[in-house]
Amino acid sequence: MQKIPMTAEGLARLEEELKQLKSEARPAIIRAIAEARSHGDLSENAEYHAARERQSFIEGRIAELEGIVAAAEVIDVSRLSGDQVKFGARVTLIDEETEEQKTYRIVGAYEADMKEGSISITSPLAKALIGRRVGESVEVPAPGGPRAYEIADIRFG
Hints:
- The protein is 39% helix and 22% strand.
- The protein has 157 residues and is α/β, with parallel strands linked by helices.
- It has two domains: 4-74, Transcription elongation factor, GreA/GreB, N-terminal domain (Helix Hairpins); 77-155, Chitinase A, domain 3.
- The longest helix has 30 residues, at 8-37.
- The chain is elongated, with a radius of gyration of 22 Å.
């Protein structure tokens, strides 16, 4: 089985979602299906079919999360250091065209969230940054054409 790199915080979030699905969402949908069944003819019961569809989604997500959690390899980013970009690093970039500055944290694929400033290790930007140092420039393919960034800072922890 291939290991999935992940931070401790990312694993904790996935385990919390899994716990919530098993302890709250699954029992709630079972009750909803039982309630819909009590309404009679199942062939024309939209409430029943919607509940079954929701149950299918929940069970699929539970199975997906169980697989991810089982394959997770937690990387302790608090023990990382150095002057090169690697998994767990917080990298401050300066867009060479707009001079806009942004900071991203490189995390596992299942914990990435652009709104929180975390990008997947498998993203084009992270791939371009891995192994680079402060002061280096990277070019990243983007929908509107390639973008160039200068690495301004690298931090861990």
